[in-house]
Design brief:
Chain A has about 250 residues and is mainly alpha-helical. Chain A has twelve helices and no strands. Chain A starts with 12 loop residues before the first helix and ends in a 5-residue tail after the last helix. Chain B has a six-stranded mixed sheet, sandwiched between helices. Classes of the chains: A mainly alpha (about 250), B alpha/beta (about 300). At the A-B interface, α1 and α6 of A face α2 of B. Chain A: This is ABC transporter permease.
Amino acid sequence: MSTMTIETPGVPFGRLLRVESEKAVDTRAARWLIAVTALLIIASVGLPLGLPDEFDQSPTGYTGATAIGVLSVFPAVVILLLTTEWTRGTILVTFTQEPRRLRVLAAKGLAGVGLGVLGALLGFAVAMAGVLTADVVLGREVSYAVESAFTGLLAASVLNMLMATGFAALLQNSATAIVVFYVVPAIWGAISVGVLADVGEYLDSNQAFQWILEGDTAGHWPAIFVSMTLWIAIPLAAGAWRVATRDVRS
Amino acid sequence: MIEAMSLTKRFGSATAVADVSFRCEPGTLTGFVGPNGAGKSTTLRMICGLARPDSGTSQIDGVPFAELRNPMRTVGALLEATALHPGRSGLATLKRACSLADMPDERPEELLRLVGLEPAAWTRRVGDYSLGMRQRLGIAQALVGDPRILILDEPANGLDPEGIRWMRSLLRDFADRGGTVLLSSHLLAEVQATVDRLVVIGGGRIVASGGLDELLQGSGTLVRAHDMPALEGALRTAGTGFARREDGALSVDAGAEDVGLIALRAGVALTELREADGGDLEDLFFTLTGGEPLKVAA
């Protein structure tokens, strides 16, 4: 008896990425989160328009405001993309269709990064429209020097999505991942005062994101590097290990 | 071909699956039966690369599942009918699987027709499907890549009698065209009419496996007489082994003809004499698993 072996080419990564990107946005929850994000981005431009004394009338000043919309709700989309697979049990199907688990995780993470890029583009476009409005409609004196307005927003948005991917991969539960992602960095920010203040900036993800966003990186690279390692690289690595090794049980 | 080689899985100190080995050849339909909690799902998940065995290995056409490239083209799996996203429609679910497996665009509708889902249901959310409809969609999803192997965990759950008959003929046809089918069930009667081979699992261990005929033969001849003690005496004299059944009849390790001749020589009038049939397989099942009897679901 002979066994016929047919060499089947594997699923190309691009196809997996396309499928995971579709999965990221085709649920009701995801559509709501994306709509809320778009609304937040548009609404947040009202801050520099309404409070000209508090915000620089420049692209950086305006992206500082739209970043609130870009960075706040979007991570929940990638968290849900990862965690609902485990909580609903669909990971069973996903891994029998593509058993190379780390490729699935990479596709999901990249789908999230893609969303992060789109969010940054929208945040920047809305910010520029805000500056234009301030200039033309409100007749304010504005600056059009883009400087790090776009690159800062883009970097912060992408890193933010990667951080969400790491937390989701590690915790594999929607509620836990969302709570930990949103609450723990805030708690850390609140307690890193006094003695912890000096060490704190090395470990505070919010501070690092602020520097990246504002392009205020000179002299802060070591702190940014340490906090990004702690909040992004380590959760991502541990999450990848957990995804690769965890048994799928009902 | 599906091959399980000494699969063992422990959860903490409890051994869920112990040294499970079997093989499913192309063209055959194997029933994997045992009571709930016997280790069927755990075994199937190990075969599908979803759970790591503590020892032992398994292979699909000679390679571990996790090393299959585009596995949908080789093996279709339905491990849990509820593992479908409730927010997507049946059609969308299949379209996604088809695009991943690189199958033609007309495949999803073809499959939905094949599994007998009404066109009105195609675009409805899976969350609104009955369990039976999900099973049908799950089978459609397993068939997406036109595989030559099917692994189905309790696929008859939630199907009505018509649905069960439909699934039987679908799987029979699949095997007759050279496919390999492994399906599990906690109801022996459900698979008995369909399968060629049985692998019986109880308490995490294989307690019997082989062709359906073989397993049936093993249970011998069923015989009953007016004078049971005389019949037992005659059998003892003839040196033929037997066992008393719960219903009072004897299960004899000999053919019906031999048993009849032994009774004739001893002058014992028989009231029943027949080859053990499917009903006895159920007794065998009961004995083998040592657990609750596996009756047909009401």
